[in-house]
Amino acid sequence: MTAPGVRDGQDAEDLDVEEVLALVKDGNRPARPATEATHDPTATRGHGSLVAPSPEARHRKTSATSWADARIRAARAARSLAARRTPVSVALVDALGLVLAVPLTALTDLPSFDTSAMDGWAVAGPGPWAVRDEGVLAGQHGPAGLVDGEAVRIATGARIPPDTTAVLRSEHGRTDEKGRLHPGRDLQHGQDIRPRGQECRSGDQLLPAGAVVTPAVLGLAAAAGYDTLAAVPRPRVEVLVLGDELLTEGRPHDGLIRDALGPMLPPWLRAMGAEVVALRRLGDDAEALHRALTASAADLVVTTGGTAAGPVDHVHPTLRRLGAELLVDGVEVRPGHPMLLARLTEDRYLVGLPGNPLAAVSGLLTLAEPLLRTLAGRPAPEPYTLPLREAAHGHPHDTRLVPVVLRGDHAVPLHYNGPAMLRGIAAADALAVVPPGGARAGQEAELLDLPWAAAGIGACFT
């Protein structure tokens, strides 16, 4: 049953008793905490049961990390490993999306010789000019020099003959009946000639270490003489999908549901700069999870589901068995509060995502993105805000991440934003960071861009 005051598309399973009571108060004011029973999000696999919380669940709920601090911890956790990662030499064709490990320094002057900036004639001295029969094309070596009163046809990018005064554009010259070339306008010395070294000299720094390799960077590197680039290696990620109730094909039936995270997470992780080395489905099997985590050589293991305290939630017990260090155990964010971050060994990490799809997206952006960004050497995105066109529902105490579309200079909150829903995020351009208590229409909200919203689908999955 949907609680009174819950918007269409707001999944009631993400609301505990305290939230439901708060929503039915005038103005969505927080209500007095419930004392006899509470929705324990760590006691089930997200079915919204009202149960008495276990002592372990109470402890995790009270020790949850704020959303902002969780992101900071995730980024900081990866710094020591990032500093030890050895740069790799990558062919230009494979370098898109990587980060430069060393500055990009010009290996030659650009251009490496005086070149024509336009199709036209290379001319020497004042006009009119006698035109040579042969022309100068791009790629030709050592054209013969000109003498005053002489011109030669020249193509864009071709080497300028010695003693050339300027290049007369094709549209600015005409020939008379004797074949002599006349200028249609005044010609300045050096006009339409790109002199050697105009863009850079050999040894100049073109880009600093830490620059992301974009298509334009690939072009610049090639022009400057590079065949390979020294880059920060992509973080290696293994995805473990947990849950006996998940189907990999067909329609849901008989209590089984389709796995939405298996198809979604690998391309999303690649958009974050990761190399996804494996996607494995383990079901609810503690021993299989233990074996997988022990054997994995990935820099980061991402698990889905099993982060709560139910009878088949094996992530916490397995981490204890491995002696892992919990860095973040629960985050004050909705959806996705049971997420976690652990250090498995000195050089390996685990991000545990909740099993509900939008909750998993929340965990991905909260914990995996800062960690992977640091490992990949990528700069942190500049934070920005936009006013909300409509009010956005908020949790009484926690940050809330709400899918939005960008319309002009406003962000428009989308419905269908419950933890088990993907309909909102599938249409979204970004996620709005809604503070505790919600945000009114016109209020500025921080936005987390979705990588494909600005770059285009093909540009970000490299």
Structural class: alpha+beta
**Shape summary:** elongated
Figure out the total of helices.
Answer: 12
Beta-strand percent range:
25-35%
Major beta sheet summary: 7 strands, mixed
Distance between the termini: 43 Å
Poorly predicted runs: 1-61
Q: What is the helical fraction, as a range of percent?
A: 10-25%
Q: List how many beta strands DSSP finds.
A: 30
Oligomeric assembly: single chain
Query: What is the mean predicted local confidence, pLDDT?
Result: 85
Overview of this protein structure:
With 462 residues, the protein is of the alpha+beta class. The protein is 22% helix and 26% strand. The chain contains twelve helices and 30 strands. The strands form eight sheets. Strands 3, 23, 26, 27, 28, 29 and 30 form a seven-stranded mixed β-sheet that branches. A hairpin with a 2-residue loop joins strand 24 and strand 25. Helix 3 packs parallel to helix 9 and helix 7 packs across helix 8. The chain is elongated, with a radius of gyration of 31 Å. The relative contact order is 0.14.
